[in-house]
Amino acid sequence: MQLIPRSLFGQVMLTLVAALLIAQAISTTLLYRAAEQRRELGIVHAMAFQLLSGAERHGREAMGDRYSHHSRSPRTDRIQDPPLPRLPRELRYSEGATTPLAPGDKRHPKREEALSQLLASQGIAVAEVVVISRSALEDPEIQRMAEHHPLAHRRFMGSPFDLAIAGLRQDGSGTWQVARLPVASRDRTIVRTLMLQTLILFLVLVGLLYFVLRRITRPLAALAERTQRFGGAGSPEEPLAVTGPDDVKRLIEAHNAMQARIGSMLDEKDVMLGAIGHDLKTPLAALRVRIESVEDDAARTKMAGTIEDITQTLDEILALARIGRNNSIAEPTELGALAASVVEEFEDMGEPVTLSTAGRIAAPVHLTWLKRGLRNLVTNALRYAGSAHVAVLREGDWAILRVDDDGPGIPDDRIAEMCQPFTRGETSRNRETGGAGLGLTLARAVAEQHGGTLVLANRPEGGLRAELRIPLGR
User: Which residue spans traverse the membrane (predicted)?
Assistant: First the structure.
């Protein structure tokens, strides 16, 4: 399974989605931290307000005109959401001789430090501050009130909530001032809001980018397909439609101009090769007639063989130059039957060639050219090993025409070289032992014409294995 797409469209879309998710994750983190800071600041201010206003109501200390029991802190209203119950006055503020801290309570050092600084800024001589969190069900004061007041029991025990409890002991005093504050749970709406925002941004940006990229990648894909097809066969085609952005249009126009120029050059080459073939074959035919007047049978036979070698070499050169330039369309062909027809040709000549197939395998091929490529591989095996075994099989999306022999094989360092024109495993020019060195080159050109490859490898048990690998899905 490939996680990273290889196409331009897929990579750009993946980059956009990743960048959007990363940016939204950072934004969510920053906004959530800011919301938490505001929440903590609101809790600390609400605690300070209750401590100061509670002390004023008890007549212990007068802390300034801006604090009165009629005022309400705007931050308290923000922290105490409507679902939270409002505590009675005797629970919101109380005084005692002992600290509110009990075993198992969780202290908040940051809240304690912030509360101390806030109280000190109001002129309070702070000796000790304790800030803890506790469930309302575990608070002894609320439990005591709930036991004696059924209404309070239903009010507090029916919907449990958390308490933030602040204890203050001032310098020179043994009395603890205690403030209780219902605390709302952390605001999760910001996460849902950002998720919805991310979804909307994703749909809008990805949707727009999808259409923009499609406008760019569709003509590029058509251009790549046309270039691949032209590079494989070289057949003339109509110019590609000029579409897309200006940059892509210029690229398509350049490709069309290049294709037209290359096609013109290939046509000129075909005309030239045809003329060369005609000009060479005509005197060769005349020579074939003239040698009949030679009285020496050995000399006449030798000259006739030389003329035949020249003619066959010329045919192979012309075939190699023209391969793929035909305008015929590949036709679905059963490859087992194709191989059987080639093997029968050699059996009729008494050659030891065998065939094995693995079921019915069909592929779109140029019948004449593929037969010629397979025939060259069998001929090569017979020339160097004296026998050949042909097999037709399938591996994944590939059809394989395999030719095995029991010959000497090819040195590993020369396997790639053997597919080059006029390269032979035997150094003589004798066609019976070496040939012209174009058989494997022509077979490779046939495989490439079909979008496949020619694979040569030495067999572990000895001999050479040559495979024409043809894609099935063309």
Answer: 194-213
pLDDT digits (tens, 9 = 90+) for 158-174: 566 788 899 999 988 88
Please, is 222 exposed, middle or buried when counting C-beta atoms within 10 Å of its C-beta (0-12, 13-18, 19+)? middle
107, 131 contact by CB (below 8 A): yes
- Upper half-sphere CA count for residue 434 (Cβ side, 13 Å): 11
Global confidence as pTM = 0.47
Which pLDDT value is given to residue 390? 95
Is pLDDT of 345 > 60?
A: yes
Tracing tokens 């956009």 back to the chain, one arrives at 16
* DSSP string for residues in 376-440: HHHHHHHHHHS-EEEEEEEETTEEEEEEE--S----GGGTTGGGSTT--SS-S--TTTT--S-HH
Structure token digits, residue 393: 């099989």
Burial class of residue 468 (count of CB atoms within 10 Å of its CB; 0-12, 13-18, 19+): buried
**Strand ranges across the sheet with 162-170:** 93-96, 176-183, 162-170, 126-135, 106-107
User: How far apart, in whole angstroms, are the C-alpha atoms of residue 384 and residue 432?
Assistant: 10
- Domain limits, the chain: 11-187, 220-324, 328-471
Q: How high is the mean pLDDT of the chain?
A: 79
Mind listing the pLDDT tens digit for each residue in 413-471?
A: 777 777 665 555 554 444 444 454 577 888 888 888 888 889 999 988 889 999 999 99
Strand partners, 167: 130, 178
Closest CA to 351 of 361, 362, 342: 342
Per residue in 178-234, pLDDT (tens digit) is 998 888 766 667 777 878 888 888 888 888 888 888 888 888 888 888 887 776 656
The CATH code belonging to domain 328-471 is 3.30.565.10
Look at residues 468, 336, 463, 470 and name the one whose alpha carbon lies nearest to residue 388. 463
Question: Helix, strand or coil for residue 457?
Answer: strand
Rounded Cα distance between 461 and 464, Å, is: 10
Q: Return the H-helix or E-strand segment holding 183.
A: strand 176-183
Contact 44, 248 (CB under 8 A): no
Where b means 16+ CB within 10 Å and e means fewer, 450-464 reads bbbebebeeeeeebb
Element containing residue 242 per DSSP (H, E): none
